[in-house]
Amino acid sequence: MPNTAQVDMQSLVDEILSIHQDLKCTALRSVNTLLTLRNWLIGYHIANYELQGADRAQYGNRVIENIARELQQRKVPRSTKRELHRFCQFYRLYPQIGRSLNAQSSLVSSHIIMAENTEPDDSPAVSTKVRSVNAQLAKLTDKLFSSLSYAHFEILVTIDDELKRRFYELECLRANWSVRELKRQLYSLYYERSSLSIDKAKLSELTNADVETFDLISTIRDPYVFEFLGIKAQHVLSESDVETKITDHLQDFLLELGHGFCFEARQKRILIGDTQFYIDLVFYHRILKCHILIELKVAEFTHENIGQLNTYVSWYRVNEMRDGDNPPIGILLCTGKDSTLVEYALAGMDNNLFVSKYLLELPSKEEMQAFLEKSLKQELS
Predict the structure, then answer these.
(1) 328: which DSSP letter?
(2) Tens of pLDDT along 194-215?
(3) Residue-by-residue DSSP string for 77-89
(4) How far is CA 13 from the centre of its chain?
(5) Residue range(s) of every CATH 3.40.1350.10 domain in the chain
(6) CATH assignment of 234-380?
C-alpha cells in the first residue's frame, strides 16, 4: 500500500479510482457467480429428489410442475416449469461444478452433499488417463464458471451434441463472446461451418474480428440479475430517464381518463420460446373486458416496433385471455424531437364492428399525441 504522505494528488486520485474499479468488478463477479450457483443448486436438488425423494412416487411425472406451482405462490423469481427443467439440465450437463465449488465455498457445502460412492481421482481403480481427463475437465469447468454468466450456460445447455457444446464453450472463453454473440454464432452454424472449412484458423480469425465481447457491466444490467437481487424491473429496464418519466405520466394519464383502465403491470415479463420480453405497461379495461398493452419508444417509428407489439398482443391472446375476455389490443407510442406517432395493434380482429367499439372506448390518437408532445416538451425543456 502506498504511503499517502509521499504521493501527489494525481497519484492519490489514480489509486482511489483503481480501488473503486477493482472492488466494483469483484462485486459484479460475485453476483454473477452466485446467480449461476443458485440455478445449479436448484437443478441439483430437484434431480436428486426425482431419484431419492421420500414422497416422489405420489407426484409421478408431475414433480417439476408441482414444485413450480409452490415456488410461484411464494413469489420466487424464475421458477416456471420450463426454467426448472432448464436448471436440472444445467446440473446434469455440468455436474463437475459441484465438486470444485464444494471445496471453495461454505455456502455451497451447506446446500450440497456430494455422492458418497463417487470414486476420488486418486483411487487405484481410476486410471492415470482418466485422472488426466478429469483434471482437464475440472480446470475447464472452473474457468467456465468464473468467466461466463448463467445466460451463457442457458444457451449452452440447449446444445445436445457434447462435442459441439465443448466447441462453443472454448470459443466463448477464447474470444470472450457476449451472450448475444454466442447466440448469433450458434444460429449462424459456426460449428458446422468450421467443421467443413479447410482453413479453420482463418475462419476463426474472420469470425472473431468484429464480435460483441462479454463484460460484467452488461451482465449486471440483465433483468435476471435484478430479479435475483429483489430489485423491481421497472427501476432498471427503461431505455432512458426521459422514457421512465413519460411512462410515469402515461400511467397516471390513462387512469385519470376514466375510460375504464385498471392498472395491472409495468415492465411485464413474458417468455416467448427461450427469449424474455418486457411490456412497458399492461392495463385491463373493465368496459371492453380485454387487456391493453402499451409500448413507448422515445425514438422514431420503425416497422420492427409494430411487429414487436403485434407479437406481444398475439402472445397475450393465446396465453392470458380467459373465458369472457375479448382479444387484447396494443398501443404503440413513438416519439422523436419533432413528431409523434400513435398506432393501434388489433391482432386477430377482423370484425369491423368490434374494432370500432374498441376505438370508441380508447383514447383517440389525437389525445394520445397531444399527451406525448406535452410530456416530451416538459422532459426535454
Answers:
(1) P
(2) 888 887 788 887 777 777 676 6
(3) SS-SHHHHHHHHH
(4) 36
(5) 234-380
(6) 3.40.1350.10
